């Protein structure tokens, strides 16, 4: 893990860089960073329908963006055919 995140023995999360882990959080499936649902506009209810979550930083990577779009728009079977 990144030691910069651990200055006071607390792990900092999310775009807000706080150690608050009492709220609903979702983990990015690419960088494995944790984000507060309310900071990124995702509710616990939304998350039940999200198979994989990629944060804004990771969405900047083109292959991730493509994969997420592909998952959203076509069946898994069709994705495998494309690959
Ligand atoms: Zn936050
Ligand atoms: Zn990420």
UniProtKB/TrEMBL annotation:
Matches recorded under InterPro entries: Spp1/CFP1, Zinc_finger_PHD-type_CS, Znf_FYVE_PHD, Znf_PHD, Znf_PHD-finger, Znf_RING/FYVE/PHD
SUPFAM superfamilies assigned to the protein according to its UniProt record, in alphabetical order: FYVE/PHD zinc finger
GO cellular component, one term: Set1C/COMPASS complex
UniProt GO MF annotations: zinc ion binding
Gene Ontology biological process: positive regulation of DNA-templated transcription
Pfam family, one: PHD
Residue ranges occupied by any PHD-type domain in the UniProt entry: 11-61
Top-level taxon: Eukaryota
Keywords: Metal-binding, Nucleus, Zinc, Zinc-finger
Protein localization: Nucleus
Protein name (database record): CXXC-type zinc finger protein 1
Organism: Elysia marginata
């Amino acid at each position: 893990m990144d030691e910069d995140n651990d200055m006071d023995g607390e792990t900092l999360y999310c775009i807000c860089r706080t150690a608050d882990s009492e709220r609903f959080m979702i983990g990015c499936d690419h960088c494995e960073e944790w984000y507060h649902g309310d900071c990124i506009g995702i509710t616990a209810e939304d998350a039940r329908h999200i198979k994989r979550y990629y944060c804004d930083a990771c969405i900047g990577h083109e292959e991730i963006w493509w994969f997420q779009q592909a998952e959203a728009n076509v069946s898994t079977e069709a994705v495998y055919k494309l690959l």
